[in-house]
Amino acid sequence: METSGAITDVDGLAVGHWTSRDRPTGCTVVLCGAAGAVASCDVRGGAPGTRETDLLGPFGAVERAHAIVLSGGSAFGLDTASGVVRWLEERGIGYETPYARVPIVPAAILYDLGVGDPSVRPDAAAGYAACATATSGPPAEGNVGAGAGATVGKLFGLERAMKGGIGTASVRGAGVTVGALVAVNAIGDVFDGPTWLAGLRTADGRGADRSMGALLAGTTPLRTRPATATTIGVVATDVALGKLQTHQLARVAHDGLPRAIAPVHTGLDGDALFAVATGTNRAAADATVLGAMAAEAVRVAIVRAVRAAQSIPGFPAARDFAAG
Hints:
Number of helices: 5
Structural class: alpha+beta
Number of strands: 19
Largest sheet: 7 strands, mixed
Order of helices and strands: EEEEEEEHEEEHEEEEEEHEHEEH
CATH architecture: 4-Layer Sandwich
Number of domains: 1
Radius of gyration: 18 Å
Shape: globular
Strand content: 25-35%
C-alpha cells in the first residue's frame, strides 16, 4: 500500500479552510459534491461537541451528507455549519423534501478558547468563507482552519503544552483510496511510532515529558474541565458503501488515534471521526482492508498535523522544539 497524499485524493471531495486573522482559530469544511456522500460517525471520549451525529447513526433515515465541518471555538464553533448550509442552499444542494432542499451538514468542534482572545471564534460567516476557498487540491496543513488554535500535551495545563494542528493523508491499495483529515487538539502526547513528537513539556518548559509515564507513576493530572481538548476528523473512501458499512469504517478508523496519541479518548477529550463514502469507484472492497487503510490514514494525518504545525507565543511546535 502507498501512504502519502491527502483526503482530496478521494474523488468527489473538496476541502476549504477559514483561519482567523485576530487569534489562532478557524474552521475547515469537506464538501461532498452535489449528490453528497454516504456518511456516518463515531464519537469517543467524554466531552464531544457535535451536530447531526444522531442522524448519521446506522439507523438514521438520511444516508448522505453534503458537507462535514470541523471547527475551533468550542460549542460556539458549531455555528459554522449554518454558514455551510447557506452556501449549499444557494447552489441548490440538499436533501430533497416536499418544500425545500435541506443541506445535511454534520459538524464537530474542538476547544481552543485558551489560545488568545476567547471572544473571537468561528461563526456562520467563517463556515461560508471556508466553502468559498474549497478545492480538490491538497489542503494546507498545520496552523490553518480547525487546526489554527489546536494544542497537545495538556494533561497538566496549557503552560506545559505544545502546538497541534491539522493534517491529511491518503492510503492507496487494492484498487481503492482511503483518505483522512484530522485536527489534533489532544490532551495526550503525539508520537510517530516510538518517536515522541510533541506534547507534555517538563515543568520548566524546556524538555520533553511523557503524559503516560506521569499517569502510570501515579501523578495526579491538573483538574482540567472536560471539553478542553479533542481530536476530530474525517475519513473518506471512493468505494460505494452502505450506511452501516460507513459507520463501521468510522469506528475502526479510531484505531489510528491510539497509534499516534497517548493518552487518548479521555474524559477530557471529545474525539469524533466522520466517515464518508463517495462511491465514485465501483471496485469491490474488503471491509477489513478498508478498516486497516482508514486507521493508517488517520495515524499519518495526525503525525503530519504536528510536523506541519508552527510555533505560536507560548506553544512551541515539534519542528523547532529542541528538548533540553
